[in-house]
């Protein structure tokens, strides 16, 4: 079980660099990273500790959103969870 992500700044039409992302299992921080020049974090964690409910927290470059938090039910498998963000809108999906 692994998790990766990327953040796209849809207002500028380019990857969002330097966005901090945190992953929690319950209240325990299990992974953290910052997006690279392509807006990606290849492996927020190489291996998730166990199946369960995780919180993926993004701190995007937006004058409105201070943070975007997703609560995810993760099981066995690999996950890619992108965030599309603009100054006043955001969206996410399960990527491949």
Q: What is the structure about, briefly put?
A:
The chain has no helices and ten strands. It has strands at 2-9, 14-15, 20-25, 28-34, 40-45, 52-59, 68-74, 78-80, 83-86, 89-92. The chain is globular.
Task: Give the secondary structure arrangement, pairings included.
Layout: E1 2-9, E2 14-15, E3 20-25, E4 28-34, E5 40-45, E6 52-59, E7 68-74, E8 78-80, E9 83-86, E10 89-92
Parallel strand pairs: 1-8, 1-9
Antiparallel strand pairs: 1-2, 1-5, 3-4, 3-6, 6-7, 9-10
Describe the model.
With 96 residues, the protein is mostly beta strands. It has a single domain (2-92), classed as Sandwich (Immunoglobulin-like), CATH 2.60.40.180. It is 0% helix and 57% strand. It has no helices and ten strands. It has strands spanning 2-9, 14-15, 20-25, 28-34, 40-45, 52-59, 68-74, 78-80, 83-86, 89-92. The strands form two sheets. Strands 1, 2, 5, 8, 9 and 10 form a six-stranded mixed sheet that branches. A four-stranded antiparallel sheet has the order 4-3-6-7, with no helix packed on it. A hairpin with an 8-residue loop joins strand 6 (52-59) and strand 7.
Keywords:
96 residues, mainly beta, Immunoglobulin-like, six-stranded mixed sheet
- Could you name the CATH topology? Immunoglobulin-like
Largest sheet: 6 strands, mixed
Instruction: Indicate the structural class.
Output: mainly beta
Termini separation (Å)? 13 Å
Question: Percent helix among the residues?
Answer: under 10%
Question: Rg from C-alpha positions?
Answer: 13 Å
């Amino acid at each position: 079980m692994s998790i990766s992500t990327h953040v796209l700044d849809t207002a500028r039409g380019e990857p969002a660099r330097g966005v901090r992302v945190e992953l929690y299992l319950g209240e325990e921080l299990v992974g953290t990273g910052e997006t690279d020049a392509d807006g990606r974090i290849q492996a927020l964690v190489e291996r998730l500790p166990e199946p369960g409910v995780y919180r993926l927290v993004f701190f995007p470059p937006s004058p409105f959103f201070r943070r975007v938090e997703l609560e995810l039910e993760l099981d066995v498998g690999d996950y890619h969870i992108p965030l599309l963000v603009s100054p006043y809108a955001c969206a996410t999906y399960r990527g491949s």
